[in-house]
Amino acid sequence: MKTLVTGSTGFIGAHLVRELLRDGHEVSVLVRQNSDLSNIEGLEVQKTFGDLRDMESLKQALQGCDTLYHVAAHYSFWDKDKSLIYKINVDGTRNILQAAKESGVGKIVYTSTVGCIGIREDGTPGNEETPLKPPDKTNPYKHSKYLAELEAMRFAKSGLPVVIVNPSAPVGPLDIKPTPTGKLIVDFLNRKMPAYLDTGLNIIHVKDCARGHILAGEKGRIGERYILGNQDMSLKEILETLQEITGLPAPKFQIPYPIALASAYVSQFISDYVTQSPPAVPLPGVRMAKYKMFFDSSKAVKELGLPQSSVKEALRDAVDWYEEKGYVRT
Question: CATH class for domain 2-176+202-233+294-311?
Fold first, then answer.
């Protein structure tokens, strides 16, 4: 069974490739010519160089494949080219699904995000049926993924065997960028977090998230969404858990949200009109932090058998990896 994975050099994708190889799959990966391949170095995969914006390269990559995991996305809160995120996330998703349709791929798993699922006003966790209200689309990344998910659903309705997974906040090794959640951990380790916001995340071990993709391909119902998450934690709880793991003190001071928002607006203005570089305080990130991103993953647990490993162990694994790879000052 030959499987194509896009986004294999990223956090979730690199773990997905490893899980597929352990299961005995023949794995092909789509990578760009300038990609950092360190996350898949030494793995027995077939590399095809291409781009989500180039249909011919996608058709070539899909030759002989019966399964596609479309994990790749442009995850950014700021770009000089404001259209780039839509060209990759929306147009790119449409392109690869069309190529998969023409290639006769038998099963497709599309990686969306819990950012495409609504936040309930009463504070209870959202699920796959919680609608995303227009005000929830607070940034171009989230909006682009929302539009890309609509593309995936459209293809599923037309008969393409697409299953959608919505990861929450994965944590663990191989987070080379790192992701915003990973940066939070790195900043904590480097003592760059003097205070915290009253917000929250749903955390899952990245290995469970990768396994959830495979389970979705095996057991998921076409056209359905599955939240790949585990434990809801406030940011304060996350920092206190990191304190237990490392012995480093968690910040005690909570920043009032209006102050954080004002700082983000100033930082955004400087980036757009002065430095032309990513802001020190991303405005979309602060806007999202206004709400606790809590979600119910029981559908994936019941229908797919999604693993629910210890979130504390996920945080410990992440800490160990960041320290080993030199992300932490000595």
Answer: alpha beta
Which DSSP helix (H) or strand (E) runs through 107?
Answer: strand 107-111
Structure tokens at 245: 């793991």
Integer-rounded Cα Rg, in Å, for the chain is 19
Token pair belonging to 24: 């005995």
The yes-or-no verdict on residue 284 having pLDDT over 70 is no
138-142, 247-251, 319-323: least confident range:
138-142
Q: Judge whether 76 and 50 are in contact, CB under 8 Å.
A: no
Active site residue 141: yes
Domain edges within the chain: 2-176+202-233+294-311
CA dihedral sign, ordered 153, 62, 32, 165: positive
Given 141, 196, 322, 327, the catalytic residue: 141
DSSP of 184-245: HHHHHHTT--SEE-S-EEEEEEHHHHHHHHHHHHHHPPTT-EEEE--EEEEHHHHHHHHHHH
Distance in angstroms (rounded) separating the CA atoms of residues 28 and 192: 39
Mean pLDDT on 130-143: 74
Does pLDDT of 137 surpass 90? Answer: no
pLDDT tens, residue by residue, 204-228:
999 999 999 999 999 999 999 999 9
pLDDT value for 76: 67
